[in-house]
Structures are given as C-alpha cells and as structure tokens.
Amino acid sequence: MAMMQGVQKNTLYVGGLAEEVNESILHAAFIPFGDIKDVKTPLDQATQKHRSFGFVTFLEREDAAAAMDNMDGAELYGRVLTVNYALPERIKGGEQGWAAQPIWADADTWFERQQQEEEMRRIETENRAAMQAAEDLHRKQVTEQREGEKEEEIEIKDDPMAKAEAEIVQQ
C-alpha cells in the first residue's frame, strides 16, 4: 500500500537501551506480545557496542501495536524505553541517512499520507454503509416474500370454496 510506505507497522524502534541489553534480552522483553521475526541492535563501528537503540520486528501488526502500547515508557535495566513504529531506512550512512534530515523534511508527504488515509477511511465507511443497505434491502425482500406465502395459506383457510378445492386436489 502506498500510504503505509512511511511507517513500518510491524517493526518497532526501541530507544533508551542500557549498555547491558543485547538482542536476546530485547527479544525476551518483547516476546510476550507475540511472535518476533527479527531483533536488531545496530553497533557503533568504533566501540562495537550498540548505540542505545534497537529494532524489533513482529510477524503481526497487532502484536507490534500491543508491544508499543505496553512497552513505551516501561523500564528495562533501569532505563526508560521509548517505543515507536520504525521509520524505513533511507540510503545507509553518511549525509543521506535519517540523522541528516531535519524532522520537518517529510512534513509535506506526511500531510499527504494523512489525507490519503482519511480518504481511505471515508471510502471504507461508505462501502460498509452501502453493503449494510444492500443487506437490509435483501432481508426486507425475503421477509415480504415469506409474508406473501403465509397470506396465501391464510386465504385458503378462510375461504370455504378454496378449502373444498384444496381437499379435492389432495384426493
């Protein structure tokens, strides 16, 4: 989907990691929320230690959302975690990475994505309403058809001539 391109809904950014936290500890902290596809803690090339953040990728978006809701602001090894949806990587390294971009650099596309998402929600709502109306109409037609069949049965019971004809036909 084009509108989801800006945010990876099943990958979480986990910031504020203590030095002791490694990928297996991070995995253990997030596994209660669902199946994990991948855990990464990028290393600082100079020190070969992680740079106090990592990424946790869940198999399901719902699990990632639950983990973010529960773990953002939680404490791990005495440090408060920041947990958000991960943004996709830009060109790796150097001046082209995310760090070189001002926070407002993608503001125009963000607003555009928000408008697209709003439009999609509006269309989905209209489609649900149309489907509900079609279902209601179908139920009404089936009900009317059944009531019509019942009225024919009632007419035969109330009409002595129709009753006699029905008895002759049965014999």
UniProtKB/TrEMBL annotation:
* Residue ranges annotated for the RRM domain, each copy included: 10-88
Domain of life, source organism: Eukaryota
SMART domains the UniProt entry points to: RRM (SM00360)
Q: Composition bias, kind Basic and acidic residues: at what positions?
A: 135-149, 157-171
Q: Which PROSITE patterns match?
A: RRM
Write out the ranges of the annotated region (Disordered): 132-171
**What's one GO MF term for it?**
RNA binding
Q: Does the keyword Translocase apply?
A: no
Q: Which CDD domains match?
A: RRM_PPIE
Keywords, A to Z?
RNA-binding
Q: Which Pfam families match?
A: RRM_1
Keyword RNA-binding in the entry? The reply is yes
- Show the PANTHER family listed in the entry: ATPASE E1, RRM DOMAIN-CONTAINING PROTEIN
Q: What is this protein called?
A: RRM domain-containing protein
Native organism taxonomy: Eukaryota, Viridiplantae, Streptophyta, Embryophyta, Tracheophyta
